[in-house]
Automatic annotation (TrEMBL):
<dbReference type="InterPro" id="IPR024079">
    <property type="entry name" value="MetalloPept_cat_dom_sf"/>
</dbReference>
<dbReference type="InterPro" id="IPR010384">
    <property type="entry name" value="MtfA_fam"/>
</dbReference>
<protein>
    <submittedName>
        <fullName>Zinc-dependent peptidase</fullName>
    </submittedName>
</protein>
<dbReference type="Pfam" id="PF06167">
    <property type="entry name" value="Peptidase_M90"/>
</dbReference>
């Protein structure tokens, strides 16, 4: 992978080639199109810094291309556009699989019985370790999920310790208001999923408060109208946390 590292850290004279790849990747991400020209410029520059500081590797024989890296970088940087890349300090690895992959799990039930099983996954974020992502050439194969935003939301959540749906909040934000908005929404969403309702938001959000935060973060950036119409208080809290208002971009 050394040639890819050299590509993104090339001298300034060679940067137009990198900018071309970023532009191609950006054109394939419609939820970035509504950013202001200034915000898009800052996102591209942040993506270049991200690419220079992270190490990509392919799994299961996948050949990682510059386009893949650029696409992942743009999506990963969007949540921290107003927070800064330092939020992703302390780790460097990004592992990409060709499609979904299997993670071996071990869990202990209430009776002390150990259960081992394999779980199909689209992504995995490790505390202090790499981010693992599935890559599909056709975005429709993601079935509406944004794996990159999801897993990098977990990384932000982990800045306060174990992922629990409560990332470190900024000065002026209230933990009580966050808990009320996201906690009430999570309880309501779980009730709807348990009742068999076909929700527009990915039902995987009902798995755990940390998954709820990651899924609603996806929706916040990709389908803000859906989140605001379904859980307006959650939208308000995420707008304060990410310091962005995706709804205002379309006005």
């Amino acid at each position: 992978m050394r040639w890819l590292k050299r590509f993104w850290s090339a001298p300034q004279a060679d940067q137009p080639a990198a900018e071309d790849v970023l532009a191609e990747a950006e054109a394939a991400l419609p939820f970035i199109q509504n950013l202001t020209p200034d915000a898009r410029d800052r996102l591209r520059q942040m993506a270049l810094e991200f690419l220079a500081g992270k190490e990509f590797s392919g799994a299961a024989g996948l050949e990682v291309t510059a386009f893949m890296q650029a696409s992942i970088a743009l999506q990963a940087c969007l949540p921290v556009l107003e927070l800064g890349l330092s939020a992703y300090d302390g780790w460097v690895g990004i592992v990409i699989y060709p499609g979904d992959f299997v993670i071996p799990r071990r869990t202990m039930d209430e009776d002390g019985v150990l259960h081992e099983y394999d779980e199909a996954a689209l992504g995995e974020a490790w505390d202090g370790g790499p981010v693992v992502l599935a890559w599909f050439d056709d975005p429709e194969e993601y079935e509406g999920a944004n794996v990159v935003v999801h897993e990098f939301a977990h990384k932000l959540d982990m800045l306060s310790g174990e992922a629990d749906g409560l990332p470190p909040l900024h000065a002026g934000m209230s933990v009580e208001a966050w808990d009320a908005a996201l906690g009430d929404a999570y309880d309501d969403f779980c009730d709807r999923v348990d009742a068999g309702e076909e929700t527009q938001i990915d039902p995987y959000a009902a798995e755990h408060p940390a998954e709820f935060f990651a899924v609603v973060s996806e929706v916040f950036f990709v389908e803000p109208e859906l989140l605001n119409s379904t859980y307006p208080r959650v939208y308000e809290q995420l707008a304060m946390f990410y310091r962005q208002d995706p709804l205002a971009r379309g006005q």
